[in-house]
Automatic annotation (TrEMBL):
Coiled coil: none annotated. Residues 53-79 form the Rho termination factor-like N-terminal domain. This is Rho termination factor N-terminal domain-containing protein. It comes from Sphingobacterium daejeonense. InterPro entries: DUF7218, Rho-like_N, Rho_N_sf.
Amino acid sequence: MPRDKAPQIKKPDTYDALVDKGMSKEKAARISNAQAAGTIDHRSKKLDERTKVDLLAEAKEIGIKNRHNMTKDELIKAIRGH
């Protein structure tokens, strides 16, 4: 029978620091793994340069509800706050 594999934290020091600051474990893991991978930082100004379609796709990936009813600015705020 296959074993469930636990998610791996790529930058444990960053993860621990974020959790200590009160961030949820999910968000801390996502941020620390994104930093390790060198992918887009959600606090980056580059979010403002992306299309609404791109923002909707990212919002879907991270599980933001009611994303289709949001404006581009609301999507950016929701992604940065998630």
